[in-house]
Write a structure and sequence with these properties.
This protein is an alpha+beta fold and 575 residues long. Strand 15 and strand 16 form a beta hairpin. The chain is globular, with a radius of gyration of 26 Å. The chain binds adenosine monophosphate. Adenosine monophosphate binds next to strand 2.
Length: 575
């Protein structure tokens, strides 16, 4: 771990990409394969390989307490160090003392991470973290803490680790990238590179692949400016899910690659009958029969539950709207153009439908058109099956796109997705092959009540803001959300200075500040929630701009929030 930590210091000390990869590659080569494999995961800023669901569940405050205790320092010394670095790892490196006999191997750290993940409850986790950090040198502790918090902050992305692997063990970068994408495990990718078996890396069922991402567009014209032929789909407001189906077994994975099958017990059975093994991409939405998605706030009630009650299943049924296929019948399809994947997908779902019909002895009702001409499913079938092909539309002009956009919103969906029919499926990438077109629900003028230090390039600046609206009488502020700054670097620097000078209470990580700064925030959706004292929470809040032209008293009140919530609910009912 000492060598790894020293290499990290060297990587952080240079901005040159080539130098960074050279340090990583030299380090990896100097280690055994087992050590190098674990190190590659750590260098990607993770405690465990990407595909794994395992998480440490160790938060900043637990680390903060352990570091303070081991250092024997009081709050204010730690706070001062934190203010200087804006990073808990760097704080640990500074305040912890060097003691004889310290020093850890990377394999030992990896084994302890597994124990921490398996430990139940904060007390057990704290004991393991304390023991680990006590045995580490201060420099090792610095990087252990950084790995635990999920960000090394040395300007090293997983893509650079991929480059270093290619450099260290031969093989092309493309081979390394592909193996890593298929395995979802940079450590396993490294092992294969060592053994010269990268080409054999196969997509593995039940190991989620990365998700292809979309870029936003500002206008219908822009939506049609990047490629010649577009497939247009509604943008559903639910959660993205990748389904793996193999020999009757079905699992769903979220965008963070966590398994979410348990939350949707009605879905696996519906996919089990696919005629071939497959990996599908789609969106899980709260569904209203016979044919439309309900708002995200409705689906939210179903999320994060281990057990879903019969009543929940009845009241908030879900559907899986499938829009892509990444693998089918033994073939990885991601390099094939969307137009071909779409054909395979249609074929798969159509074949499944026939099988279902054939097996069912009940007389079938007439197939009902759902949202578009590609929608299908009888009422009975949709209730029982809940798997739908997301309807695909074609447009020829920006005007048609705009019309379709309005229609999509009329159906209660967020907007549109515009996809290049000639594009490959690029896992984990945000490019211009998939575009998203949506409009903000509304904006609110809010007052900043507390601030936190940022991450990554926002280290050391106060860039995460908690904000509030007024209660009805404007005599009390109630928090409603938190957003990472959408402000420019200059604005953030100015705001940081202001917040430092106008702190009411300094809690180290967080500062309660004088409620004077007004921001305009946009968001996708609003829901009732007890997370904040307003009783509401915003989905995807974004700071649109500072409102220096407004005094705090001019910010919005909870009644405006209630109005927006009610109009959203009306739109939802209409939809
Ligand atoms: P955003 O979350 O705003 O970046 O938009 C991208 C997300 O839209 C995806 O990750 C999906 O969860 C969701 N989405 C909804 N409908 C579709 C669709 N038809 N195709 C692709 N993504 C969709």
């Amino acid at each position: 771990m000492r060598l790894l930590a020293e290499s990290c210091e060297a990587i952080g000390a240079t901005t040159k990409r080539l130098q960074k990869t050279a340090v990583v590659s030299d380090y990896l080569k100097s280690r055994t394969t087992d050590e190098a494999a674990v190190s590659a995961v750590f260098l990607s800023g993770r405690a465990f390989p990407a595909w794994e669901e395992t998480t440490l569940q160790v938060g900043g405050s637990l680390l903060w307490r352990v570091v303070a205790e081991l250092a024997g320092k009081d709050e204010s010394a730690l706070t001062a160090a934190y203010r200087k670095h804006g990073d808990l790892g760097a704080v640990a490196g500074e305040v912890l003392a060097e003691r004889a006999g310290q020093g850890l191997g990377v394999l030992e750290v990896a084994a302890t991470f597994r124990q921490i993940a398996a430990a139940r409850g904060p007390a057990a986790k704290t004991a393991l973290v304390r023991d680990l950090l006590a045995r580490a040198t201060p420099l090792e502790a610095k990087y252990i803490v950084k790995i635990v918090t999920g960000d090394l902050r040395i300007g090293l992305k997983e893509s650079l680790v991929e480059e270093a692997i290619a450099k260290a063990y031969g093989g092309t970068l493309v081979e390394v990238q592909r193996a890593n994408m298929l395995l979802g495990d940079i450590g396993e990718t490294l092992r294969r590179a060592v053994e010269g078996r990268m080409a054999e890396a196969k997509m593995r069922m039940f190991h989620p692949l990365g998700f292809m991402l979309a870029s936003p567009i500002e206008s219908p014209e822009e939506g049609l400016s990047y490629f010649s032929e577009a497939a247009v789909e509604d943008k559903y407001d639910g959660i993205r899910a990748q389904a793996h189906v193999s020999e009757g077994e079905v699992k769903f994975f979220s965008r963070t690659r966590d398994e979410i099958t348990e939350s949707f017990p009605e879905l696996p059975g519906a996919l089990a009958g696919l005629p071939q093994d497959a990996i599908l991409d789609g969106e899980i939405v709260a569904w209203e029969y016979p044919g439309r998605a309900r708002a995200f706030s409705v689906l939210q009630k179903r999320l994060g539950r281990k057990k879903v009650s019969e009543r929940m299943l009845q009241e908030i049924p879900v559907a899986y709207l499938v829009f892509d296929v990444l693998y089918a019948g033994g073939e990885l399809l991601i390099d094939r153009p969307l137009r071909e994947r779409a054909r395979v997908l249609d074929g798969l779902l159509e074949a499944k439908r026939k099988i279902t019909h054939h097996r069912d002895t009940e007389p079938r009702r007439k197939t009902r058109e759902l949202q578009g001409k590609l929608g299908f499913g009888t009422e009975e079938e949709t209730t029982a099956i809940s798997i739908l092909r997301a309807p695909v539309f074609r447009v020829r002009s920006p005007e048609e796109l705009e019309e379709l956009f309005i229609a999509a919103q009329g159906r209660g969906n967020e907007g549109l997705m515009i996809k290049d029919l000639d594009s490959a499926y690029t896992p984990g990438k945000r490019g211009k092959s998939w575009l998203k077109m949506k409009r903000e629900l509304a904006t609110l003028d809010v007052v900043v009540t507390a601030v936190e230090y940022g991450h990554g390039k926002r280290v050391g600046v106060l860039s995460d803001y908690t904000f509030a609206v007024w209660d009805t009488n404007k005599d009390r502020l109630v928090n409603i959300g938190k957003a990472y700054s959408g402000l420019t670097d200059v604005e953030i620097a100015e705001m940081t200075q202001w917040f430092l000078e106008h702190t009411i209470e300094d809690q180290g990580f967080r500062r309660t500040v004088e409620p004077k700064i007004v921001l305009e925030v946009a968001f996708n959706n609003m829901m009732q929630s007890d997370r904040h004292d307003s009783g509401y929470a915003l989905r995807f809040p974004r700071i649109v701009r500072l409102r220096p032209d407004k005094t705090a008293k001019e910010a919005d009140t909870i009644s405006r929030v209630r109005e927006i919530f009610a109009s959203q609910a009306r739109a939802e009912r209409k939809a």
